[in-house]
Amino acid sequence: MADGEVTAELLSLRSSIDNIDAALIHMLAERFKATQQVGRLKAEHDLPAADPEREKRQIARLRALAEDAHLDPAFAEKWFNFVVAEVIHHHEQIANGER
């Protein structure tokens, strides 16, 4: 492959990556809008910020989805744990009247 063709392919691939990154950010924003509503509902009904049983089920589900998608299940679990930690933090802020 000539240098110009390599450059063109790199630009095309990077454009696709940029589009995927943008979609991920928008999807995360929508996810956090939903979890904010969950946090408000939990606060109104004095429910705990964390739900360890649901988290276990979600981890198992996401690990299976990752395997089916040929993505490292450990990576999927790390991503989920990172997101859940932020969600719980938001729920605690809502419960404390900080949000």
Can you give me a brief rundown of this structure?
The chain is mostly helical and 99 residues long.
Q: Over all CA atoms, what is the radius of gyration?
A: 19 Å
Supply the number of helical segments: 3
> Main β-sheet: number of strands, strand sense, barrel status?
none
- Residue ranges: pLDDT <50 for 5 or more in a row? none
Order of helices and strands: HHH
> Could you tell me the number of beta strands?
0
- The mean pLDDT is 95
Distance between the termini: 55 Å
Write out key terms for the chains shown.
99 residues; mainly alpha; 3 helices
Can you tell me about this structure?
The chain is an all-alpha fold. It is 83% helix and 0% strand. It has helices at residues 3-44, 52-68, 73-95. The longest helix is centred in the N-terminal third of the chain and has 42 residues, at 3-44. The chain is elongated, with a radius of gyration of 19 Å. It starts with a helix and ends with a helix.
Fold topology:
Blueprint: H1 3-44, H2 52-68, H3 73-95
Helix pairs in contact: 1-3, 2-3
